[in-house]
Design brief:
The protein has 315 residues and is of the alpha+beta class. It contains five helices and 22 strands. Strands 15-14-13-8-7-6-3-20-22 form a nine-stranded antiparallel sheet, with helices on one face.
């Protein structure tokens, strides 16, 4: 249902792109969040939920007004939650909980690098929260401006971490280890098969890895961002494409984060326009208001910082 691509070795800019695929729109809003916001990991301030204050400002996309699915913070750390139906979270223990819909926000608020984010995740227990009566399993991808990457999954009640710049592609089910084993059947990853062309998670994973492998060195950061967007469009699922099960849905939007230059791009697949924000041109001071906009607005194009308006968070 979603695909994420991280290009870390082009020597120009570290850039990452992801698609959001679902049966219906996740009603994304684009937010600018300052430092110093007090947060809870769940639906209240009870002792079972983690409580924290944001150390870093961030630009994020909310989903259904219930949490965050994607974003980048001012330190150049990006995080993305993708659906993983096989998720089985850790058993209850003494650690405070963070709902999976707050997972991305917790990482962006509290960490500047992937390594730091992994340390922070050891302090909390990720737990499922219903969203529109859906219990959405998820796995998390993270990348930083230094080129580090990690994928975190919860399988059979255990945390499974894949850490290193080689963790550059992620899709949905099956779990990451199984995706890698499947990838080995294809060239140039050890097998002889040509890249597949279906819209399933397994095929999208292979196709994204294949085209990322062959991306030529960009001349500048704009070409680097365009490169991962090309791959995201290649693995996107067009509206009207036939599907028979829960593993494939149409792509509603594509995001790109330039971690080196701290830019965040958004493309709605229902609009021909691309919008973006330059984090270096935004203020994340604690006395700034929370600001937001609807990035799907068809009248918006280019830098949309001017369109931000004060808003109240709903998560």
């Amino acid at each position: 249902m979603c695909t994420r691509i991280f290009w870390s070795d082009n020597s120009v800019a570290r850039v990452v792109s992801r698609t959001m695929d679902w049966a219906f729109s996740d009603e994304p809003r684009l937010w600018v969040l300052p430092r110093g916001i007090q947060r809870s990991g769940g639906t209240g301030a009870g002792p079972e939920w983690a409580q924290w204050s944001s150390d870093h400002g961030s630009v994020v996309l909310s989903a259904w007004g219930a949490g965050v699915s994607d974003g980048i913070n001012e330190a150049g750390l990006a995080a993305h939650a993708l659906y993983l139906g096989s998720s089985i979270y850790e058993r209850a223990d003494e650690r405070p909980q963070v709902g999976q819909v707050q997972w991305v926000q917790y990482v962006l608020d509290t960490a500047a690098t992937v390594a730091e984010a992994l340390d922070r995740l050891a302090d909390v227990r990720i737990t499922p929260i219903l969203v529109r009566e859906m219990e959405l399993g998820a796995h998390l991808a993270m990348e930083d401006a230094g080129g580090d990457s990690a994928i975190v999954e919860y399988l059979d009640g255990e945390q499974v971490v894949h850490h290193g710049h080689q963790c550059d592609v992620m899709a949905n089910d099956p779990a990451y280890d199984e995706q890698l084993a499947h990838l080995g059947r294809y060239r140039p990853f050890g097998g002889n098969l040509a890249p597949p062309g279906d819209i399933t998670s397994l095929d999208r994973f292979v196709r994204a890895a294949y085209f990322l492998h062959y991306l030529p060195r960009p001349d500048d950061a704009a070409q680097a961002a365009a490169g991962v967007m090309q791959i995201a469009r290649n693995v996107a699922v067009p509206f009207g494409a036939p599907y028979d099960d829960f593993s494939t849905y149409p792509t509603w939007w594509i995001s790109i984060a330039d971690l080196t230059n701290r830019l965040y791009y958004f493309e709605s697949t229902r609009s021909p326009n691309v919008v973006w924000m330059e984090l270096d041109g935004l203020s994340f001071d604690a006395d700034e208001p929370v600001r937001a906009l609807d990035p799907r607005d068809p009248t918006l194009v280019g830098d949309v910082s001017h369109a931000l308006r004060p808003a109240s968070q709903t998560w």
